[in-house]
Amino acid sequence: MTETARMLGLTEPLHQRVSQKFMTAFKAKDILFSETSLAYLQARGGASFQLRYCPALKKKPQGDGFVPKKKPLRPHFDPFEDPPAELLIAQIPAHNASHNLVLNKYPVIHNHFILATKANKPQTDLLEADDIGLTHACLRAWHDQRHSGDPSRLFAFFNSGEHSGASQMHRHLQFLPVEDMAGPNSREWRLLIDRMTVPAHPDLPLFQDPSLPILHFSTPLEPDASAADLHGRYVLLVQAALSAAEFPGQPLEQSLAIERNGKTLISYNLAMTTERMAICPRRQEAVDIPGAGPESSVAINGTILAGTLMVKDETEWDVLRETHSLLDDMLGAIGFSLTSWKQNERSSKA
Fold it and tell me: Which residues form the Ap4A phosphorylase 1/2 N-terminal domain (predicted)?
């Protein structure tokens, strides 16, 4: 048992706890797993994306999202308020638990699980230090099993704001095992956040992947970073995303207000691994696919920072595989133009 697992209050390795809970829930039909077809797309700059096709999710119940109905027929269901025992993995940390680890009820990837606050905190507010710290602790606990011969990795993501792809208002971050995401032809795909290693600022620890044609930033993480240090890196990413999206070409303004009454002033997707944290500011949640019909609409969430997209309609699946140029159009529609302060520095010296 690792020190991280003990800190979380787990009596067995996190990987083992999640996989056993997942298989038990799957056999009992307490979760509804949907198979997906998998293809690979490539942006013009070279970034590789998985495209998943899951028609079963067209029937999945949808959350009320961020737009209240004028005449609600029933109260909005909160799946994280009192998670059922068959989905509850653990309450963490060991003392004075503030968060629940729960299985995703409608997974398309094996062992998809969620970190949710026990109190109903808003998804649109800035994450707090314990949210970030516990997320990183889960990533480390999973990663630490490498020492026992299991080379597994975990990818975490968070959707915040009306354009981010979030479907539940109760604050939660999500986890996907990278090996379960990879698929049979994994050599064609690499976790996108791992590629964000090109400096984007002359002085600050901000990096990008120039092959991803929309605004994004990453920052490296120290293995033993405290929750406060991790939260500081998160705030830096939000500042960078808001500054570059709202004031392109201008110097990064670290005194820029990033929240009002707790609510973040920009929609964004956040991602984390043990080594890196990344952000992608959003201006649109979904995009229409030309040639896929009048009702075509593909919603994109934080898995974009892993390099993964999903469609639920067969026509969308066919059109995107046949017309690869649409990938860049989709990315351009949901995000902001790629820029960096390193690029601006070079331009000013020219």
Answer: 12-179
